[in-house]
Design a protein that fits this description.
The protein is mainly α and about 170 residues long. Helix content is about 75%, strand content about 0%. It has six helices and no strands. Helix 1 crosses helix 2, helix 2 packs parallel to helix 4 and helix 5 runs antiparallel to helix 6. The longest helix is centred in the N-terminal third of the chain and has 55 residues.
Length: about 170
């Protein structure tokens, strides 16, 4: 009788333990998902903060730092604020905003950059805006080719002459 009772108790304990293990695994999974979601929310809060600093920062240094950071993290949500910063009265802010837009590579702001370049008086600002314009224009066809290039038929150009093969021909 003791053996049967002990066997039933052990089996019940195993069932309880496996039930608790399942609950623990589910809890850990849920906690992990919540942490991931909180991390994404924190990232959004940080980018929102940087965008706000770009728009309302009291010092040009704050705006420059915000623009540089937004460019480095390639924050597409910041494109409208960076485009608006092209009209800032401070040349360093305009330069930083233009550089950030170039890093993000969104060709939708080409007209904003063109307009800012026409209004710019500083040589440094004009140079950065010209560089940004060039980079954005080169990004625009690449984005169009990604969607429409395959339907027109593919053609490849392979050039090997840079490697010293003078007998290679291109097609």
């Amino acid at each position: 009788f003791k053996t049967i009772l002990r066997a039933r108790l052990d089996k019940g304990t195993q069932l309880k333990n496996s039930h608790y293990k399942t609950k623990i695994y589910l809890f850990l999974l849920l906690a992990g998902l919540l942490i991931l979601k909180a991390g994404a929310a924190q990232a959004d809060a940080r980018t929102d903060y940087l965008i706000n600093m770009l728009k309302t920062g009291g010092s040009y240094r704050v705006k420059v730092q915000a623009a540089q950071t937004l460019g480095k993290i390639q924050c597409k949500e910041a494109v409208p604020a960076l485009a608006a910063a092209l009209a800032d009265k401070s040349d360093p802010v305009v330069i930083a905003a233009a550089a950030a837009l170039a890093e993000i590579g969104d060709p939708s702001v080409i007209e904003n950059v063109r307009s800012a370049k026409k209004k710019a008086s500083s040589a440094a600002v004009k140079t950065q805006l010209a560089t940004t314009l060039r980079l954005l224009k080169s990004a625009a066809p690449a984005a169009g080719e990604a969607t429409g290039g395959a339907s027109q038929g593919s053609s490849y150009l392979v050039k090997v002459d840079a490697m010293g093969n003078s007998s290679a021909s291109t097609r």
